Amino acid sequence: MEILIRGDKVKVTEAMHKYAEEKLSKLDKYIENNKNIRATVLVKIKDHTQKIEITIPLRNFILRAEEEQTDFYAAVDMIIDKLERQIRKNKTKLERQSNKDVKDFIFHEMEKLEEPEEKIVKRKKIEVKPMDEEEAILQLELLGHQFYLYKDVETNKATVIYKRKDGGYGIIESE
Known about the structure:
- The chain is an alpha/beta fold.
- The chain has 4 helices and 8 strands, in the order βαβββααβαβββ.
């Protein structure tokens, strides 16, 4: 697997690069044709914490995880565990999808995690009302939810506004 590491407001040392490569190589046993895969590692500094983001685009899937820690090495360890857990947790779905297309994963290397009985525990129908972003933020706050679906008054498209970890808001627009 080819690994690209870059720092945002931080210089990535050779030791950091080698450590990330060593830990990411643990995922090679799960990924078919890993020579053609390019993993991107982004290291950001915010106050006294380091945020690590790893993205691995495959043919049919994108593996992505992020972690914030005061120590770079601890963050890398935790993020690799998260990526392995993602693969294991979704093993059945990935096998099913991979059987249809070209294989992305090698499944005989991992044990299967138990899946819960039912994943969808509630369904809800809502009326999607036309409104602007400000009104959507107000609705989101009034309801106390993490996200809110509405129809954008300007584009007339279904749009989701969500609360970000940093306290700001994000918008997902449909095409």
